[in-house]
Predict the structure.
Amino acid sequence: MKPRSSIIILWLLTVPLLGRDEVFETVHVLILSGQNNHNWEETTPYLAGLLEETGFIEVSTLLNPQSLTAQHLTGVDVILSEWNAYPSNGQLPPVTSWSPEARQAYTDFVRQGGGHISIHAGGSSFPNWEDYHAINLMRWEDGVTHHGPIHDFVVHPAGTHHPVMTGIPYFNHVDELWESPKVHPEAEILAHSPSPAGTMEPAMVAGHFGNGRCFATTLGHDLVALSNPTLQEILIQAVIWTSRYPHIEKDRDYLSLTVGNQPLWTLHHDPAEGKPYFHPLTAMDGTTFTDLRPQDHPWHRALWFSWKRINGINYWEEDRDTGKPRGGYTRLVSTRHQTLPSGELRIIQHLEYAPGPTADPILLETRTIVLRAPQPSELYTIDWSATFTAMESEVVLDRTPIVGQEHGTIWGGYAGLSIRLNQEMVKGTFLGSEGMEGTQGHGKPAAWVCFQAPAGPSLLFMDHPSNPRFPSKWYINQEMPYFSPAVIFDGPLTLLRGEFLKLRYRVIVSSEKLDAESAAQLWQVWQSGP
């Protein structure tokens, strides 16, 4: 049997970048214990140690949950239940009820977004308390559920792509196997095991109660069961998922914010690709907005920045077969990032714009992106600012002309920071700050444009008053869909050697529908700040 500390070190190596310098916050777990028809005196401290050795989970224990109050839950992210209403080793008369205040605090916590985990018999109580069973998901049902002796069996993932089961193969396990447990009808089965009778019995389930995420497993009878490294990995991933814990994962060529094992955004910054981009861009409810390199325009990169023409050379399109630029080169020179004391992530990138792969740059860019962890209101922000410096005597930033101009086309005017949405977003709608809806906002000035997805989440794109030509005219295409504050929609901008152009934008990704009033308030708060 591997020592527990070795398992934690192995887990931290296989689940990258949960280092303290990359963590947005600490997860606080409250273990409910003190009574159980199993040896909680051993398993509860073992579980506490297992979680705390991750370095990002803090644990406290409540041995009399019948006294639970809202104050006990202040600062708590996840409840982990090892408590049930059976005698504790037969030593004391069991507690068989909770006070109304304890019940209210318990259900309110989960309903309002707190996480909940139940281990083995930790949720097998209160047969007439429906909310309790909806939270605990799976329980022992007297007269129905049963088990044989502890034995070795195989746990099979159920083929789900649930975040708790990320990277989990089938595994051998020594435990007490429950047969015919009572599973809540809205629970999703994540894993099951064959019983001696040949039936496949649910071993792990997940679900929701209000805004809270819940996980339950019938496994974990004793220290032998809890020492299984795969079960330990699952329990840690369950804490991450139920707590909506935000953490940064990184590789040489990307940074990604994951909340509860759900990627919210990934910034790809491979210098070989040239232009960096964000994909996916996902709301907290799981709605993904962006599309990467769609067939119609394979140079579209979800959320990205590109000039159209610089000194007459095309920097926008790329060769369909090779992905190489057709004209000018956008070269990513460097990417650095740091987590600020405020919990914000700051990314600084340096880019060059050159007419050829080895040519001297004619334009330099310093790009600063500040990202914030999701807020309780189910939204997060991406602040994007860039400073461009001309390196030639004259640098002309231009685009395809619009209708009414020489060689103008109906698709002219695009360039700059852009968002390409996926085809599931086609039925969504655009709303502009001046009251325009849908494509009415195309070519019209607006301080902000909000895209409302068909299912309700929203993507708010804001222009800053300090930008040239504020408010920008927007390029909006409903069929792609695509939108952008096109700073050079009407005509080019010219920089002389050494001159600067500064651009500043904010993108807000919301799980909730943002109406015009909400969008206007968010823009007002942003533009009035520093």
User: Anything to note?
Assistant: The helical segments are 4-14, 40-52, 100-111, 130-136, 223-226, 229-243, 516-527.
